[in-house]
Amino acid sequence: WDYLYIQRAQYYDDSEKFEKAVNDFNMAIKLNPVRTETYGLRADTYTKMKKFDKALEDYNILISERPTANSYYRRFCCYYEKGFTEGYLTPTEEQIRYSDIDNAYKIDKNPALLYFRGDLKKMSGNPEGAISDFELFLGDARIQEKFKDSFFASAYGGKAECHLDIGELDDAKLAINRAFDIDDSVSSNYF
Fold first, then answer.
1. Distance of CA 81 to CAs 48, 50, 146, Å?
2. Tens of pLDDT along 4-40?
3. Among the listed residues 115, 33, 44, the one whose alpha carbon sits nearest the alpha carbon of residue 77
């Protein structure tokens, strides 16, 4: 029966009736507390509601039982959204966010995770690490088929920003020119 509550909760979530979704996820968990994915689904809903602490509690349960690339990535996104919405994260939260994207990439070598990790390193004041991740992302042959030009332009723009931070003006110029060549509307966000 828990599955019926999950299905209805997902319908409510898709309809942005988040309180009803949470109520149904709660019923599903009460009926079957060992179905860990339900915690992840409820956490996703809590994140949309900006109830980050409740979401993180559920993501922690999910990760303790099913430490997959997806579960780490979802918790990373919650911390990202929390930091953006509340304006800060504690040093411990920053460390967990950083570990989550690393763990996700260790499990699943998805090149998109390199982009996000590079962006996180850029925001955290590690331009050399960010450049390395952006280069790995841009050099992965698999990304040619999967990502839109705006994603490439953003990676080159982020790379240019990092080169500027460490005084590598020629490399910054090459990267930003490449970003403009790909999509000048996205790369203009950087300068």
1. 9, 8, 24
2. 999 999 999 999 999 999 999 999 999 999 999 999 9
3. 44
Q: What are phi and psi of 178, to 5 degrees?
A: -65, -40
Among left, alpha and beta (phi > 0; psi -120 to 50; other), residue 27 is alpha
Packed helices 69-86 and 36-48: angle between N→C axes, nearest 10 degrees = 20
Question: What is the C-alpha to C-alpha distance for residues 147 and 89, in angstroms, rounded to an integer?
Answer: 30
Please give the Cα distance from 64 to 59 (Å, whole number): 8
How much is the pTM?
Answer: 0.84
Q: How far apart are CA 92 and CA 151, in angstroms?
A: 29
Q: How many CB atoms lie within 10 A of CB 191?
A: 12
| Cα 75 to Cα 81: distance, rounded to the nearest angstrom | 10
Here the tokens at position 161 are 């920003």
68: three-class secondary structure by DSSP: coil
pLDDT value for 132: 96
Residues 188, 191: Cα–Cα separation, whole Å: 5
Rounded distance between C-alpha atoms, residue 43 and residue 53, angstroms: 9
Distance in angstroms (rounded) separating the CA atoms of residues 104 and 80: 15
Find all residues with CB under 8 Å of 53, minimum gap 6, and list them: none
